[in-house]
Amino acid sequence: MGNIISLARDSLTNLVSRMGTGRDKAASSYYAFTPLSDAELMAAYRTAWLPRKIVDIPAFDSVRAWRDWQAKGDKIEPIEAEEKRLNVRGKIFEAKVKARLWGGAAIHIGTGEANLAEPLNIERIGKGGLKYATVLTRRVLRAGEIERNVDSEYYGLPKTFSLTSAGNAQVEIHPSRLVIFQGNAQPDDDLTLSAETFWGDSVLQSVINAVKQADGTAANIASLVFEAKIDIIKVPNFMASLASEDYKAKILERYTLANTAKGINGTLLLDKEEEYEQKSASFATLPDVLDRFLQIVSGAADIPATRLLGQAPAGMNSTGESDLRNYYDRLSAMQEVEMTPAMHRLDEALIRSALGSRPSDVYYEWAPLWGMSEKEKADVFKTKADAGRTLAGGNGQSPLIPIDALSEALVNAFVEDGSLPGLEAAIDAFGTLAEQEPSQEEIAAAAAAASQNAGL
């Protein structure tokens, strides 16, 4: 019974093999945090392709499809024009890249106000009130004292940020004037969170070892290419004759000449007593070894190999579609959980700057990152049409939903997914089904008129 209890413990110890003891080879393994300096981050990003793609790809993919504004009337075009004027999409991409590389970045919501230390009053922004949007990294934006008042909406954020401007003057900026992005967030521990630890870690911090191992493997394989074929010549009494300087000069001259002759006509001239052979290195398994290291990098960066490396999926009947779908689903969640809240004040300022007011019907949706093929779109349209026909009481059955209500719902569905381009404009021109069909009063009046005419 005692042995059973011993085996059921969380940690397995074997004194014979030293497993689980202080002399276990694994006992010396531990995790240590060695932060990457700004110089190391800069060098990795500028000189190595893997770190650059790890930083850039998710940032680019998160804004690639961008977003679709929804509103009634002619409100969308001014908002999109304001987005283009301020280059909001480009600024978000730049901020995301710098946040992932340096651990933190922010976009300053520029309204032209002099006192930036005061909270931003969104309601005071009128048409054209948003002047600029400037990207600042944590290297120039120093976090101040952390807000500890739990009743404050800025709890956990610095009360102010310090920006070094021209002439080394310090400018205090309130967090409400910033769109804040972070790289890999640090553990949220109230005991350790401070102005020095507010910003997150670079995304390269946790993957750099895997990147170095992959780069080192590729470099070693490249070095082996130069040793792929080695000529070996056996010379009688070679070592014994090396004591003579005259012999050294003659042996170098002799094989330089032999190598030159071989390069010209492919014929190697040797003495009868000399032996010649070639040894070639095998590279058969090296591509698999390198692929394993690159797959580790892909897993560490949480980017599918098909996207990170631009390679075709491996394996029978493999398309890589599942990996990409999971990746895009994660980015979609990041857009909703991270980007939308961070951009809230910027978007509110953008709407007011474009329209001069804040209509309640204005909102946006992130565009899908995964695009369906034409066949998939056709299948979805057919499925919706068949479902609508069933709900309308096809095959002589009674309608499950009033026809007018079903018509309105289907029109909205087809307009939102873009199945029928121009449908919304056509509905505006020709009216809905309910508008085209006569009312009960009109039907009764027409019937009465028909009866009267029949009596005549």
UniProtKB/TrEMBL annotation:
<protein>
    <submittedName>
        <fullName>Mlr8004 protein</fullName>
    </submittedName>
</protein>
<feature type="domain" description="Anti-CBASS protein Acb1-like N-terminal">
    <location>
        <begin position="40"/>
        <end position="387"/>
    </location>
</feature>
<dbReference type="InterPro" id="IPR024459">
    <property type="entry name" value="Acb1-like_N"/>
</dbReference>
<dbReference type="InterPro" id="IPR006445">
    <property type="entry name" value="Phage-assoc_HI1409"/>
</dbReference>
<dbReference type="Pfam" id="PF06381">
    <property type="entry name" value="Phage_portal_3"/>
</dbReference>
